[in-house]
Amino acid sequence: MNGKVIISFILAFIVVTVVMIYGATAYRNIFDFDFTPVSEIEAQKAKMAQNAGAKNKEKFNRQSDKKEVKKPYDFSDNGAYDTMTVSLKDSSSLIDSINTLLAEIRRLQNEKEKLLESQKEADNQENTTPPEEEQKYREWIKNTVKLYEAMDTKKAAKIIQNYSDNIARDIIFSMKKKKAAEIIAELKPEIANRIISLQ
Question: Distance (Å, rounded) from C-alpha 50 to C-alpha 124?
Answer without folding.
Answer: 70
